[in-house]
């Protein structure tokens, strides 16, 4: 990367911090995991109507892809209800 705007997690590198590092990254375009020997972030699923080219254009590095890409399933009626009524009833995050 040319420039790093911010770090949200120490990742999987050597560190005195406990834990196994991040497990999943969710963005507006896709899902990423770290399920490979190098524990490198990799594209695993595209959200509906999103192409791998769009995701590649949005990242600043040579993006690794899982052996097979899935499509992110649409939320269920119950998941939407929970989001709207319990997790974000004022619409602060879902506007």
Structural class, by secondary structure, is alpha+beta
How many alpha or pi helices?
Answer: 2
- Main β-sheet, spatial strand arrangement: 1-2-3-4
Provide the helix percentage. 10-25%
Biggest sheet, open or closed, and with what strands and sense?
A: 4 strands, mixed
Question: What attributes characterize this protein structure?
Answer:
globular, alpha+beta, 95 residues, four-stranded mixed sheet
Any overview of this molecule?
This protein is α+β, with helices and mostly antiparallel strands. The protein has a domain of 64 residues. It has 2 helices and 4 strands. The protein starts with 23 loop residues before the first strand and ends in an 8-residue tail after the last helix. The model has no long low-confidence stretch (mean pLDDT 86).
List the helices and strands and how they pair.
Layout: E1 24-26, E2 30-33, E3 42-46, H1 52-58, E4 64-71, H2 77-87
Parallel strand pairs: 3-4
Antiparallel strand pairs: 1-2, 2-3
Summarize the structure.
The chain has 95 residues and is α+β, with helices and mostly antiparallel strands. The protein has helices at 52-58, 77-87; strands spanning 24-26, 30-33, 42-46, 64-71. Strand 3 (42-46), helix 1 (52-58) and strand 4 form a beta-alpha-beta unit.
